[in-house]
Each structure stands twice: as structure tokens, then as C-alpha cells.
Write a structure and sequence with these properties.
- By secondary structure, the protein is of the alpha/beta class.
- The chain has one domain: TIM Barrel (Alpha-Beta Barrel), CATH 3.20.20.140.
- 36% of the residues lie in helices and 14% in strands.
- It is built from ten helices and eleven strands.
- The strands form three sheets. The chain has a six-stranded parallel beta sheet.
- Helix 2 crosses helix 3 and helix 4 runs parallel beside helix 5.
- It starts with a strand and ends in a 6-residue tail after the last helix.
- The chain binds zinc ion.
- Zinc ion (ZN) binds next to loops.
Length: 315
């Protein structure tokens, strides 16, 4: 039987509950936060409070999406999960090159070396030092998703990274979560992963709503991947994310997931920001139902789709 791998252990897909499919619960001080201090989300007490609110509003699970060595801290994630009662799925993998200094190992290691690092985090435990140095100390918290990314163009690093992620997926069944830069290169990501033997039902492409072109989304969905939309609170005029869900969810009911990707202090209630991590469960749900989306479809998007997508592939 398949399972979802959380930081506190494996759960049945039926235990997932309402799930935010792409979040940032912890971002410790790192190369990334030096450039953008608003990304610094290192406070366990504030994160526990924000996730407790999410739990009280009916939420159950969040998928963290900060991969190796760019501010991830799996011990903090486990502590927040215990304190809040929210299931947390933590990633292995690597982010875009721009989130690392130019001498970072991720730029130079070979495909099979990267795959071995990812597989060890899925099977044995995430490095408590975040693969930031020569000593590796495996925490008793395993990775439940492989996060990879493309920037505006494919680079040899990204080709290698996708091959390493596919290798780890074929070996373990671990699902894959991708970053698309402003929604671009989604078709190329899906085609590449498919050609590398990845089961596209266990692939989630993030942020594609930032390119809200209907024909593009239909082409993406026809490949069989799942799409994660997370800009429902970001638009200044209109809400193309809301429009996409209303239009495409009835047509592709099993393939759309939602999250917030709220990777800034200024978005969190407990850091004094807004709209806070309950936004999807309150305002966005209300807006969707007001636009005619059925409650059953909301449950499908928030519960059933992530439960299928983030279950380990069984061969
Ligand atoms: Zn993100």
C-alpha cells in the first residue's frame, strides 16, 4: 500500500486531510536570506502559532518546499509539526542556481552523486546540517518529496538535476515537486521527466498560475502532471488564479492543487504581516464557492489530489 512520508513518519494517504501543496515553513539564515531578509522564517514559536491557526481553521498538512542547503532545517520542521499537530512533508532536492553561492557543491557534483544524496535523505533521514558541510548527521526525519527547479532557461545544471531527481524517483517512488519560473517551461519539465521514466501522476508543477494562459494550462494538464496554483493572494488587479480554478477544476478535477508559497515574513500573521496562512481556507475558499465551485470539488482539490500526488509511486 502506498504512503505519504512526513517528518514524523509515514501516514496513509487517507490521513492527509486538507493540504497546502507548496509552503515555506522554515527558511533559516542562508545565502538566500542575505539577499532578501524578508525570506528569513527561522522562528519555531511563530511558525508553530501560524500552523496552529491553520489547524484550527481545518487545515491538516503542509508540504515544505525548501530543499537541500538553502535554509532547510528538518529538526525545526519536526518540532513545529509536534507543536501544531500539522503533518509536514519535507523535501530533498535542490533549488535554482541563484539560491546558492557560485562555489556550491550542487553545481559540480555528478548526476549519480546527487541522486545518492537525495535517496539517502528519502530512505535514511535528512541531514541535520542540511548538507552544508562535510559532516552528515542523519536526523530521524525522512524526506517525502524531491524538489527541483528550472530558471527562465534550461542549463546543464538543471538537466543534471532533473536526471538525478528522476533517478531517485525510479529507485524510491518518491514524488517530485518542481518550481517553474513565472510558470514557464512546464511542458519541457513534464516531457523531460516522462522521458526519464517518472510517473507523471506523482509530479507537481508549482506556480504555473503565474502564466494564466488557458491553452497552456490545458496542454500541461493533458500530460498527466498535477499543477499547483499559489498566487491567489498576490494579484493586484483581478484574480487570474481564482479564474483558472473555477474554469479548469471541473474539467480536470484530479489534477489541480493549491498552496500559498508564502515565503515571506510580510505574509504571515504571526510576523505582523498579511494575509496569513489561513487565507486559502477562509477568503479563497469563500471566493471559489461564491463563483459556483462545488464543495465536493473543493475537497477534491485540497484533500484527494494532494493525497494521490504526494503518495509514493508503487510499482
Ligand atoms: Zn516556493
Amino acid at each position: 500500500m502506498s504512503f505519504i512520508r512526513t517528518v514524523l513518519g509515514d501516514i496513509a494517504p487517507s490521513e492527509l486531510g486538507l493540504c497546502y501543496a507548496h509552503e515555506h515553513i522554515i527558511i533559516d539564515a542562508s545565502f538566500t536570506t542575505q539577499a532578501t531578509p524578508d525570506f528569513l522564517l527561522d522562528d519555531v514559536a511563530k511558525a508553530s502559532a501560524e500552523l496552529s491557526d491553520f489547524r484550527a481553521a481545518g487545515g491538516s498538512t503542509m508540504v515544505d518546499s525548501m530543499p537541500c542547503d538553502c535554509g532547510r532545517n528538518v529538526r525545526k520542521l519536526a518540532e513545529i509539526s509536534r507543536a501544531s499537530g500539522v503533518h509536514i512533508v519535507a523535501p530533498t532536492g535542490l533549488h535554482m542556481a541563484k539560491y546558492y553561492d557560485p562555489g556550491h557543491w550542487g553545481h559540480f557534483y555528478a548526476e549519480d552523486q546527487l541522486a545518492a544524496l537525495f535517496i539517502a535523505e528519502i530512505k535514511e533521514g535528512i541531514d541535520a546540517h542540511d548538507y552544508s558541510g562535510p559532516i552528515v548527521e542523519r536526523a530521524p526525519h525522512r524526506a517525502g518529496v524531491i524538489k527541483i527547479a528550472t530558471d527562465a532557461q534550461w542549463s546543464p545544471r538543471e538537466e543534471k538535476l532533473f536526471a538525478a531527481a528522476a533517478h531517485a524517483h525510479r529507485r524510491t517512488g518518491c514524488p517530485i515537486l518542481t518550481h517553474t519560473e513565472q510558470g514557464t517551461l512546464g511542458l519541457e519539465q513534464a516531457e523531460r521527466l516522462h522521458s526519464l521514466g517518472v510517473d507523471l501522476r506523482h509530479v507537481v508543477l508549482s506556480h504555473t498560475d503565474r502564466k494564466p494562459d488557458r491553452a497552456y494550462h490545458r496542454d500541461l494538464l493533458q500530460t498527466g502532471v498535477r499543477l499547483e496554483y499559489d498566487s491567489g493572494f498576490r494579484w493586484k488587479e483581478g484574480n487570474p488564479t481564482l479564474d483558472l480554478v473555477v474554469e479548469l477544476a471541473p474539467e480536470f478535477p484530479r489534477q489541480i492543487l493549491l498552496g500559498m508559497d508564502a515565503a515571506r515574513r510580510s505574509y504571515w500573521t504571526h510576523h505582523g504581516g498579511r494575509p496569513g496562512l489561513c487565507f486559502l481556507l477562509r477568503e479563497f475558499r469563500g471566493d471559489l464557492l461564491a463563483r459556483g465551485l462545488k464543495e465536493a470539488l473543493w475537497q477534491q482539490i485540497m484533500r484527494d489530489n494532494p493525497a494521490r500526488a504526494y503518495a509514493f509511486a508503487v510499482r
